[in-house]
Amino acid sequence: MFAEHDGRPNPKMPAAAPSDKFDDLYVKALELVTTHKTPSVSWLQRQLGIGWNMASKILERMEANEIVSAPNHVGRRELLVPSVAGDIARMKANLASKGISMSIEIPEDGRPRLTLVADDEGATQ
Question: Fewer CB within 10 Å, N side or C side of the chain?
Answer without folding.
Answer: N
